[in-house]
Amino acid sequence: MEEFSFSGSSSDAVEALLDEVTTETQPQPLFDGSSLRGQIAIVTGGSSGIGRAVAMELARCGVDVAFCFLDTGSQARLDAQEVARQLRQFEVRVFFRHCDVRESKEVNAFVAEAIEELGGVHILVNNAGIGRDRALWHLQDHEWEAVVRTNLDGAFYFTRAVAGVMRAREYGKIVNITSVHGIRSEFGISNYSSSKAGLIGLTRSAAVELGPRNINVNAVAPGYIRTTRLTEGVPSENLDRARAQSVLGRLGDPQDVAGVVLFLCSEAARHITGVVIPVDGGYLL
Ligand code: NDP
Ligand 1 atom 8: the closest Cα is on which residue? Predict the structure, then answer.
């Protein structure tokens, strides 16, 4: 019977493997935002609500930020300027300007300019989004189109625009802000629900296509989050119902979403791709 013994070289190989395993399994801080320092992020719709909180959280970790907004008038511009001022307090570089995510040419120009100004792009957060709620039998073509084009087409245009740079660099983190309403619907939001469900499909497809080049693509699905849009646009009885349906008994804050986005952008989440993380206080349970 043949004797089995380790030769000198194979035992060296085993030693090397053990060393590697030992090094790689040493306790390390699970999530240290400071590892993102020096990276460059694009956040769509960064001038208010969740987008603003995400941009602030990234800047707090030393990430240079480019953000766009929809220029709906002087107040929108003032809001964007104020966010840029607050971001610069973290001593990061900031690029911001109007860009309508529904227009692919504008998106391509914005991404090219942001990359030129800041020197690249490591992170994309597709956050810009709107709702135009109405029973579907009353829904106008323009209300359907505005929502689907903003929430879904916009994310596709931005993802396509950064894909070349991220693929060449073999590094990237893309986070799409979908919604619990992309998973479960309610009355009067067929356009919104369809766009957010589509965004989940885009997340999975992009994860499959970009993963081989070390690009993670994930989605966060917020429940009801206290942003101005929500508190001004949704009847208070709906908010009371949402609070009651959340097992944690509260609405979320933009910061609750921003923290999860930050995690997905970090190396702590390097083995996570194509998933949808609800940030909803248990609303979907
Ligand atoms: P806000 O209305 O506060 O912010 C939306 C941002 O998107 C603004 O910066 C807005 O710019 C920008 N935006 C809108 N349309 C366009 C466009 N065509 N081109 C460029 N920018 C645009 O919304 P929230 O922070 O509440 O929502 C952010 C995201 O989170 C959305 O995708 C939303 O669907 C999602 N979400 C929100 C929830 C909530 O409860 N708040 C729950 C679940 C998901 P401007 O201000 O200039 O119009």
Answer: 45
In whole angstroms, give the CA distance from residue 165 to residue 115: 9
Active site residue ranges: 192
B/e letters for 47-82, b = 16+ CB within 10 Å, e = fewer, are bbbbbbbbbbbbbbbbbbbbbbbbeeeeeebebbee
Distance, CA 14 to ligand 1 centroid (Å)? 53
Lowest-pLDDT range of 11-15, 54-58, 138-142: 11-15
Whole-prediction pTM value? 0.92
In the chain, where are the structural domains located?
A: 31-279
Residues 6+ apart with CB under 8 A from 265: 36, 41, 58, 123, 125, 173, 175
- The C-alpha atoms of residue 257 and residue 220 are separated, in whole angstroms, by 8
Which amino acids bring their CB within 6 angstroms of ligand 1?
Answer: 44-45, 47-51, 68-70, 72, 76, 99-102, 127-130, 150-151, 177, 179, 222, 224-225, 227-230
Give the model confidence (pLDDT) of 119-168 as tens digits: 999 999 999 999 999 999 999 999 999 999 999 999 999 999 999 999 99
CA–CA distance from 15 to each of 4, 5, 20, 62 (Å)? Answer: 18, 15, 9, 39
For the record, the structure tokens of 36 come out as 């993102």
CATH assignment, 31-279: 3.40.50.720
pLDDT band at 24 (very low <50, low <70, confident <90, very high): low
First vs last C-alpha separation in the chain: 60
Q: Is 145 left (phi over 0), alpha (psi -120 to 50) or beta?
A: alpha
* Confidence label for 17 from pLDDT (cuts 50, 70 and 90): low
The three-state secondary structure class of 172 is strand
